Amino acid sequence: MIRVLIVDDQALFRGGIRMLLESQPDMTCVGEAADGAQAVRLAEEQQPDVILMDVRMPVLDGIAATERIVRARPESRVVVLTTFDLDEAAARAIRAGASGFILKDAEPELVLAAVRTVHAGNEVVAASATRELFKAFGSQRRRIPAEFAALTEREREIFGLAARGLSNTEIARSEFVSEATVKTHVSRVLAKLGLRDRVQLVVFAYEHGLVGDQR
């Protein structure tokens, strides 16, 4: 059973998401929070598997709440909820440790798929809106850090493919290597760059202009 915590300052929205989750045989809502401070407390008390987190809330916003929760309980996976597809706050939440983001007006099936995806240990990175967000956020490019220069040529190739949102299976097929080899390369890249997961890898790539325009 996937234990989900809903965090949003709109009671009606929380109620709708709760009804959606409770309609699924593999999900249960373990609590609702109206602000980030409540979310931090409930995350500690209820130990949810997945947290659906609004970014804009009173008392404590979703970015700060995400950072605190992930630091204290890294096994809880955070999915950011946002109204805008080009939202810098969502990218900041991802850098703080969130596993991806979805739009508040997303179809119910997408919300459920996002919960199951992050619970399985993956990230929500493939949506076109996500890529557009990272492109927009990455328009203010920073100097490429020395850590990236330390990557081998092969690791840079894998980095580029992962940054475009390709799965391990797709990368393996493209590069004619095994999925195990791809996983090893991705793990080394994340370690060298000090990144938590593939979502942060995508943010890093677009922030530093390391990925071309992907259509």
TrEMBL record:
InterPro entries (UniProt xref): CheY-like_superfamily (IPR011006), NreC/VraR/RcsB-like_REC (IPR058245), Sig_transdc_resp-reg_C-effctor (IPR016032), Sig_transdc_resp-reg_receiver (IPR001789), Tscrpt_reg_LuxR_C (IPR000792), WalR-like (IPR039420)
Positions bearing 4-aspartylphosphate: D54
Any coiled-coil regions, as ranges: none
Residue intervals passing through the bilayer: none
GO molecular function: DNA binding
SMART domains: HTH_LUXR (SM00421), REC (SM00448)
Name this polypeptide is given: DNA-binding response regulator
Boundaries of every HTH luxR-type domain copy: 144-209
Keywords: DNA-binding, Phosphoprotein, Transcription, Transcription regulation
Residue span, Response regulatory domain: 3-119
Cell cycle found in the keyword field: no
Superkingdom of origin organism: Bacteria
